[in-house]
Amino acid sequence: MSFGPEDYYSLALALHQQASSDSLESKWRTVVSRSYYSAFLAAREASPVMTTSSNVHQEVIDYYASRNGQSVIANWLKSLRRMRNQADYNLNKPCTEEASEKSLRDSSFVLKSLGIIP
């Protein structure tokens, strides 16, 4: 069985639904993180970017930013990456249900734009 970026999105969606019923910030943070990685991995796989360096995240964003008609993907990835960094590294600032919802929405836009999900 193969694991794909859409599997991270499905996990994030399920966690968001659970977190909404019990208000667990740890789940919202995880939703934000997995939403980003779902979109990022799908975008990386659909691009010619092959590096595994620490700059790969920015290289993928730059690739989409430079392509006519796909710069919106770069914008969603930048937004998702900012939210993911906040959720993963800034533990003094709360991660909210709204951030969880936005990350899912932005991730779904990327996945739909790349034809990963309907």
Describe it for me?
The protein has 118 residues and is mostly helical. Helix content is 72%, strand content 0%. The protein contains 5 helices and no strands. α1 (5-22) packs antiparallel against α2 (25-45), α2 (25-45) runs antiparallel to α4 and α2 runs parallel beside α5 (97-113). The protein is globular.
Q: How big a fraction of the residues is strand?
A: under 5%
Helix content: over 70%
Average pLDDT metric: 93
**Number of E-state strands:** 0
Termini distance? 21 Å
Number of helices: 5
Any chance you could write out the topology, listing elements then pairs?
Elements: H1 5-22, H2 25-45, H3 56-65, H4 71-89, H5 97-113
Helix pairs in contact: 1-2, 1-5, 2-4, 2-5, 3-4, 4-5
